[in-house]
Each structure stands twice: as structure tokens, then as C-alpha cells.
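Appendix C: a fully annotated inverse folding record. The material below is reproduced so that readers can follow the format used throughout the book. The structure is listed first as C-alpha cells, followed by the designed sequence.
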């Protein structure tokens, strides 16, 4: 993997994190290919090869539906989230495809409460080169605990 591609990969991770932390939901689907897979799954299920996931979206259309749900149909106490994302560990790299693993932690802050650790785990990503730059073909968010407090509203 050359420096230019690695730098672009770091930019993809930083831009993604900024979009989900600032609630820029219109941008979120654009980080993915049209036929993408986005899944949030407990570690136990992932390690056992069990398909049950907390959230599983296939294709950019389902990502857009999720954004519609966040804005129009889901009612919840408002909160902010802040991601802390590690440096990507490159598992495979070719000219057109990168497989990477990255640790993450998501902190959640409700306006009238102290911040708390909301979700911790790792991203298992397959990223492909497109005409618009690098995009996630799949993003599997494997979280370490068996449960998520309350419900999962915003993307991890």
C-alpha cells in the first residue's frame, strides 16, 4: 500500500467520524458503495459465526431509510456521540481493495447528564476504490459487550 492510498484511507476514517459525530446524516450514505453492507453485531455472535446482528443494512437505499428513520420516525432523548477511532490495521491491500481493522470507542452525552461509554469494539472494513475515491463496501461494527444501553439510534 502506498502513502497516497494510506493517507486517503485515514481521510475516509476521519471524514466518516466527523459526519456521524456532528449528525451530518445526509453525508453518511455517501461513504458507502451502492451495494454495501453495514452491520452492528455483538462480538459473541461474530466469533461464533452467528448471523444475528443488532442492525443490518444492505445497500445504500437501506442506509438512506435509516437516516429517514432517525429524522422522522424515531423518538428518543437527544444525545451527542463522540467517536475515538484507532489507527487502521491493514489486513490486505491491493490497488483497488483494502481490508482493515480498527478499534473504536463511542462516548455518549445527554445534555443533562455526564458523558458515558456507549459502545466499544472494532470495525472490520472492506474498502474499495471508486471513481469518487475510497468507499466502504462493507463495514462490520463488532461491539465487545453483549448489550447496548437502551437502543441503537445513530450509526456507530
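Designed amino acids, in order:
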Amino acid at each position: 500500500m502506498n502513502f497516497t492510498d494510506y493517507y486517503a484511507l485515514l481521510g475516509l476514517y476521519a471524514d466518516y467520524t466527523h459526519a456521524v459525530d456532528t449528525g451530518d446524516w445526509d453525508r453518511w450514505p455517501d461513504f458507502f458503495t451502492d451495494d454495501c453492507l453495514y452491520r452492528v453485531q455483538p462480538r459473541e455472535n461474530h466469533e461464533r459465526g452467528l448471523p444475528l446482528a443488532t442492525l443490518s443494512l444492505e445497500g445504500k437505499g437501506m442506509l438512506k431509510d435509516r437516516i429517514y428513520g432517525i429524522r422522522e420516525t424515531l423518538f428518543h432523548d437527544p444525545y451527542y456521540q463522540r467517536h475515538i477511532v484507532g489507527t487502521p490495521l491493514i489486513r490486505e491491500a491491493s490497488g483497488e481493495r483494502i481490508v482493515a481493522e480498527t478499534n473504536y470507542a463511542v462516548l455518549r452525552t445527554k445534555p443533562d447528564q455526564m458523558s458515558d461509554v456507549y459502545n466499544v469494539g472494532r470495525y472490520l472494513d472492506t474498502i474499495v476504490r471508486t471513481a469518487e475515491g475510497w468507499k466502504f463496501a462493507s463495514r462490520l461494527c463488532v461491539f465487545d459487550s453483549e448489550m447496548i444501553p437502551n437502543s441503537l439510534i445513530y450509526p456507530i
